[in-house]
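Good morning N.,

You mentioned wanting to compare the apo and holo forms, so I went ahead and generated the holo version with iron/sulfur cluster. This is what I fed in:
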Amino acid sequence: MHKIRLSGKCTRDSTVDGPGLRIVIWTQGCLHNCKGCHNPHTHDLNGGFTEDIDKVIEFINQSKIQRGITLSGGEPFLQPEALIPIVKAAIEKGLNVWAFSGYTYEQLLKDENKKALLDYVDVLVDGPFILEQKDERLTYKGSKNQRIIDVKQSYAQNKVVLSRYDEVNADF
Ligand code: SF4
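and this is what came out, ligand included:
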């Protein structure tokens, strides 16, 4: 596996996909079909374009003053094998790892390949976007059903532990 399918070029300096300045990997392909999805062009499993994984890693290694990397899409967990070496390179560079997924944390745990990627993630924003639960006041998530999960703490305590970044949404 030397290629990843992307919906857009990797970007730097995002301030809306997690805390601090972040690199974002825009994956292509999603099967969730959430009503009201803002990125329908990312759904086609054969859409977007393929990119060398090595080029993505080079992009990460050339990046400066970034605090983290965010896996977005599309559905990142459809390409765990391609994303693992990318995430490993980011961790080696000292970046924290956020991932957005339409799967729930529990669903990811049950799938060996998807969990293999989750093992490298610090914070997971999980669950499908539900239009009826949309709230534009929410930070880092689109609908109230979604959770911002501290994956490392959840693993350690064997239960879902919400990230402190979810607390800002508690009053909504
Ligand atoms: S998971 Fe995200 S990209 Fe996929 S359909 Fe839902 S909102 Fe759109």
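The pocket of iron/sulfur cluster is lined by residues 30, 32-34, 37, 39, 42, 73-75, 102, 128-129 (CB under 6 Å).

Happy to go through it together on a call whenever suits you.

Best,
F.
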